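Worked Example 4.2. Consider the chain below.
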Amino acid sequence: MSYNQTVQKNEYFLKKGYIYIPGFPTLISTVLGSGVSVCLWDRKRQRGGMNYFLYPETNDPNDARPIYGNVATIALVKFFREDGSEIEDLEAQIIGGAVPLEGASSEHACIARDNVAIARRILRRYGIPVVAEDVGGTKGRKVVFNTFTNEVAILHVDRIRQEDWYPYRGDR
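Applying the procedure from the previous section yields the following structure tokens:
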């Protein structure tokens, strides 16, 4: 089976508060607003994974879930390392952290900004370079991450529609 045939059959929609590191080439897609995704890539092993978190951090060990950036990003790095990746082979892309013009509170804006900041801070602490970012602004994002090539496609959208969410309807 060729690579193109494999990727076409392996697609995964990443939900809020999840981490996904497939063992085979996969197109991971998601839809982001103020939440953030970190796409982590192992250059040596040519393998990628992604998280999606909604809030910057928790300091409560009893509430350590991947809806929080500190938990989701540390776990993403930990899972790669446990699977044999070396820190010096890893690189990251950070996506998300938008604040819509309409209906956004100052608290919402702070959460979006802090989501981006926590991802940067944790990756910097590990010494993992951030090779690309598409963060901030007022538009949501439809994202597709190719875990085999480290390519990310991003579509900026004014409004997230119901059909943007999995399971897709119609032609999707």
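Residues 63 and 158 are 33 Å apart (CA to CA). Helices lie at 3-9, 69-82, 106-126. Compare this with Example 4.1 before moving on.
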